[in-house]
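Holo model, pyridoxal-5'-phosphate. Inputs:
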Amino acid sequence: MVFKIPLSFPVLNGNESLYAQQALNSGHIAAFGQFINRFENKLSKRLKTHEAVALNSGTSALHLGMVLLGVGPDDEVICQSFTFCASANPIVYLGANPIFVDSEKDTWNICPELLEDTILSRMAKGKKPKAIVIVHLFGMPAKMKEIVELSVKYNIPVLEDAAEAIGSKYQGRYCGTFGRIGVFSFNGNKIITSGGGGALVSNDTSFIQHARHLSTQAREDLPFYHHLEIGYNYKMNNLSAAVGLAQLEQLDSCIKSRRLVNQRYRKLLKNFPGIEFQSESNDSLSNYWLTTILVDKEKTGFSNNQLKIALMNKGIESRFLWKPLHTQPVFNMTPYYGGNTAEKLFENGLCLPSSVDLTLQDQEMIVSVIQEELSKTFK
Ligand SMILES: *Cc1c(COP(=O)(O)O)cnc(C)c1O
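Output:
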């Protein structure tokens, strides 16, 4: 379905065409070319202190990250339950077992107390988790101070799924730079895009070198094809990097626009009973990739689903929040620690259109649909 107002649509009015044309003219559209290096350098400079490897998706970045952390058959990997399946699928690719943990109400991300309970419980069962996958959902930073403390205390590395959180900050530091390894996605509906793509960042140079090697089929530097390890075809191509570089140049203005969209929704919905937002703490700055609300049916008289349908009838796309992974049939044998926080968020939440070029008029129209639903209820 084509929506009049899509959930999140890229705006490509910077150097995208110019750079893509340059890549085409150079003939380098595959695994080599200047834009890959420029993209990686720009990304690592932007995040400060970190080196970056450009890859062909966020999912492959997560997979490689787990390989680098030594995740293998029968290992256990702790993962935030409230997330997209791509956070956990690579655990299964590697023959390891996910252990899901609930979220907390402030950030909607992994609950540090439950995380510690989970670590202790798994260790008591005789298995020390190999890694912890945390996510900054919709751009909102997780409670990294507490999480990093636990990572140090129990000596379990954090793999930071910052796929949705490029440019978000926690205590002045960029999301993706807290874990031993951080991961980003540049898929089509993320805050910036390279068509399809991802990146892996780390301060550990040996990780970066190993990631480069593994992402290009683990080819040894010899005149013939020679392999000491199983590799992957995971590198970003130069054409994607050309688009990605142009997008990266606009990251600041994209974040500014998404935050403006969020502010406007807050203002327009300020006096609505029963509508709540995902909110920043004093410690955090979200890129507000998507503006997300919780609908309290008792107060509004309509559910998130009813609102979604009302919006759809006006050509406006909205989307439910991620369905917690511990409730997914494919993961029904997976251990889970927590209560119903993530499930409640899923049951009541809705992502509103949040594109960079969303106008005030668009937003007023969206809010008028919410208003209509409300007046139906209380007529
Ligand atoms: C988008 C996303 C991914 C996967 O990224 P792709 O580039 O689509 O493979 C992983 N984790 C989260 C939380 C995401 O939102």
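The longest strand covers residues 51-55. Residues 291 and 352 are 6 Å apart (CA to CA).
Archived with the compound record.
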